[in-house]
Specification:
This protein is an all-alpha fold and 278 residues long. The protein has one domain. 63% of the residues lie in helices and 1% in strands. The chain is built from 9 helices and 2 strands, in the order E-H-H-H-E-H-H-H-H-H-H. A two-stranded antiparallel ribbon has the order 1-2.
């Protein structure tokens, strides 16, 4: 098949059943080792969610005792939802859950970067995680936004709140790129141009993080610094992925040395999201 354009195909077209052979860890032992590491990582990544849920239950009882006057009456105290106990718990849970999904993406891409022999169905982890991330952000990213909050669809997507708009934009982009990656991996779209949306999404998402603000929050500077770090890693990761697809060796269409920094940086972003705290 003739490949048009500067970016070559990524080499993900292989059967659903069976295992994927690569040039890295070989044999059943290598596959079991990677599987164990992935399972352990997922279990560990879920711990902050359970801790967050427990902490939120305890803090909710405390917040019922604290009146609204105590939040608004003192000088320098955060107003409204931002910086409140419930607001912080809600935001941290969202970041931790998203981090767990990003860790899944990072582990999936790391397996591909190392050309590890593993079950073929693992190639669907990335689009599956993108679908889950996009669905979660579109529904639960903001407590006061459509469809769970008082704001209408128009106010949510076309209003003046840039934080809400960015969250929903991330959700739409995640769903779109997830659909493209799913179609690529089942062989429905084969043109080389379709490998570009994933790294471009990482770059655009990273750039958006530099302007992402949590409003009138007491830890606004700390949050902005964390977002800037994640944004830098996302832009670097996306650029590495573009280079991987650009300079992919024709003799080994499934491997490029630029895949490793891409996968590792995505994994680091997921870990940082799991450690996110306000």
């Amino acid at each position: 098949m003739m490949v048009r354009g500067p970016i070559r195909a990524a080499g993900w077209a292989f059967p659903l059943c069976g295992r994927v052979d690569g040039g890295g860890l070989q044999g059943p032992l290598g596959g079991c080792l990677v599987g164990f590491v992935m399972l352990l990582s997922l279990l560990l990544s879920g711990l902050p969610l359970w801790a967050q849920h427990s902490g939120h239950d305890q803090n909710s009882v405390h917040e019922e005792v604290v009146t609204g006057h105590e939040h608004h009456g003192s000088v320098g105290a955060p107003s409204g939802w931002e910086g409140s106990i419930s607001g912080i718990a809600y935001s941290e849970f969202n970041h931790h859950l998203t981090g767990m999904l990003v860790v899944i993406i990072g582990l999936s891409e790391l397996r591909h970067a190392l050309a590890t022999r593993f079950w073929a169905w693992t190639r669907f982890l990335l689009p599956g995680a993108l679908f889950a991330t996009g669905s979660f952000l579109l529904i639960w990213s903001d407590h006061n936004a459509w469809p769970i909050g008082p704001l209408s669809f128009t106010e949510t997507f076309f209003g003046s709140d840039q934080e809400i708009f960015q969250h929903k934009s991330y959700g739409l982009l995640s769903l779109t790129v997830g659909a493209i990656e799913l179609l690529r991996r089942v062989g429905q779209i084969r043109h080389a141009v379709w490998v570009a949306p994933l790294p471009v999404f990482a770059i655009i998402g990273g750039l958006m993080l530099f302007g992402h603000s949590h409003g009138d929050h007491p830890s606004a500077h700390q949050i902005a610094m964390g977002h800037a770090i994640m944004g830098s890693m996302a832009v670097t990761a996306g650029s590495s992925k573009l280079l991987a697809d650009w300079f992919r060796s024709p003799s080994n269409a499934g491997f490029s040395k630029w895949e490793l920094p891409w996968a590792c940086l995505i994994l680091l972003i997921g870990i940082q999201l799991l450690m996110y705290s306000e």
